[in-house]
Amino acid sequence: MTGRALAACQVSASYGSQRVLDRVDLHIAAGETVGLSGPSGSGKSTLARLLALLHRPDSGHVSLDGAAVTGTRHQVPVAMRTRVAILFQSPRAATDPRLTLAEIIAEPLRATGTPAEQARERTAELADTVGLTTDLLTRRPHAVSDGQLQRACLARALVHRPAYLLCDEATAMLDASTQAHVAAVIGEYQRRHSAGVLVISHDAALLARWADRVVDLS
Amino acid sequence: MTTTDPLLAVAGLTVRFRLPDAVVHAVTDLHLDIRPGELVAVVGESGCGKSVLAHALLGLLPRNATVTGRALLRTDSAGSRSGSAGSRGGSALARGGDGAAPVDLLACPPRQLARQVRGRVVGLVPQSPATSLTPVRTGRRLLVETLRAHGHTGADAPVAADRLAVDVGLDPADLDRYPHELSGGMAQRLATALALAPDPPLLLADEPTTGLDRPLVDHTLDLLRRRCDAGAAVLLITHDLAAAQRVADTVAVMYASRIVEHAPTEALFEAPGHPYSAALLDALPQRAFRPVPGHPPMLTDLPAGCAFAARCDRATPACRVQPAFTGIRAGQVACHHPLERAELCAEVPA
């Protein structure tokens, strides 16, 4: 495989004695949208977590733009880690309830030592991109809807301009309008940055519409 | 659809939440009838007031809520169904004999709601099962306890529990797990089984398919449909338009605290009458996959007149006045400038 791509190469993963992935290959090229479907428990989320460098494969490896990644999480160099972002299904479980939406969006910037002024500008710019009003940015998760919180999570995922975005059932609990909006924001980002996108969903109609090709993991 | 009298007749339901510095207009002047054997879906964007509707009917709102209007629940039919699934629970309100006066759920004393209505006559499939299951009991204990409280004998209840588990798509062996050992989807199915156990004549299902994959979503929806076909009435609250399309007889579209259109399912999906319904359907991936333009208004700061006017390309100065709408029966649209079908349906007598 050549060119810029995020790829899982013959990866296996298990939880205890439960094997969920057995020598799986998946290739997401820059600019491409790959759909991933499969029944509950087929390992879709585990594969996304492997690709996001959050979970260590039992065997096989993840390759990022041609380089094999060793280790997970903080063991991976920041410059590599920030090239892959993940958007989870439940924004409530993926945000700190004590932070305001603005702080949630800016968290990855703070973690990498971006100056405050620059971080504020970038946060405002992203809030505008995902359709969050200034009034909402000062609220905490309990005071906004799931849809609004997921938009904040999307802004947070895009904050370091990742080359690859992994969406794990990221629109499953959203109404049709919010889902279409989130998909449109991701599509626009992808065109502008030639990003690779993985869309995990149970919804065949959504994948048919959104993805360039669909991989079934069953 | 049946032509019998409504089991539940909601008229002018209005819910307000008082906050320190604002008032949330959660539900405004809502009219809705549900007949036995009928499945009515309420759809809308998140935060439009859908779930508050279910909680208001069950008296489960927090203290800062003010509720006005009426929700009359017929109690005679509740008794007539009680033998259908080996449950006495349904007759709890009808012990005074058939033809008992309807109960106004909004004016019902909390004690009566708790002892005679909730669970027994009006069941709720909750939105977040993780917070509604007792964490220190296994699924089997929860289910058997519920079945015994609703008339199953000691020996019969465990058998009925297994049967219910299979009905909702759970492996009976999973009933021996504690709630924290269940996945989100399994907990959702257990919560559904608990709601179905007393065989209530009216079932409120608040996002019953959250966290389930498509085959299980369809399974749960078909289960609700079968309850309807056996004579129960179901109010399905969902953001999933495909779910509503699959099983509902009629669909009520809710926007910014009001029902803006209530139509037979097929008519709504083929030719929506309200511009908002049309825009929402256009957002589906099967259709234009285009979000509704603009943002929904804050429920603390609703505009005068039609709340959708700011996002609507058909809006005129007339829209500054709230459109007249009492959509008790299907086929009505709360709009000054409805799309084609509404004009046809307006001629159908309510």
From TrEMBL, chain A:
Source organism, top-level taxon: Bacteria
Residues of the ABC transporter domain: 6-218
Cited InterPro entries: AAA+_ATPase, ABC_transp_ATP-bind, ABC_transporter-like_ATP-bd, P-loop_NTPase
Keyword Nucleus belongs to the record: no
Keyword tags: ATP-binding, Nucleotide-binding, Transport
GO molecular function terms listed in the Swiss-Prot or TrEMBL record: ATP binding
One of the Pfam families matching this protein, by short name: ABC_tran
Family: Belongs to the ABC transporter superfamily.
Protein name listed in UniProt: ABC transporter ATP-binding protein
Lineage of producing organism: Bacteria, Bacillati, Actinomycetota, Actinomycetes, Micromonosporales
From TrEMBL, chain B:
The protein's Enzyme Commission number: 7.2.2.11
Assembly, per entry: The complex is composed of two ATP-binding proteins (NikD and NikE), two transmembrane proteins (NikB and NikC) and a solute-binding protein (NikA).
Keywords: ATP-binding, Cell membrane, Ion transport, Membrane, Nickel, Nickel transport, Nucleotide-binding, Translocase, Transport
Location of the protein in the cell: Cell membrane
Membrane-related topology note: Peripheral membrane protein
One of the record's GO molecular function terms: ATP binding
Signal sequence region: none
Every ABC transporter domain range: 8-281
Name of one Pfam family that matches: ABC_tran
Organism expressing this protein natively: Micromonospora gifhornensis
Entry similarity comment: Belongs to the ABC transporter superfamily.
Name of this protein: Nickel import system ATP-binding protein NikD
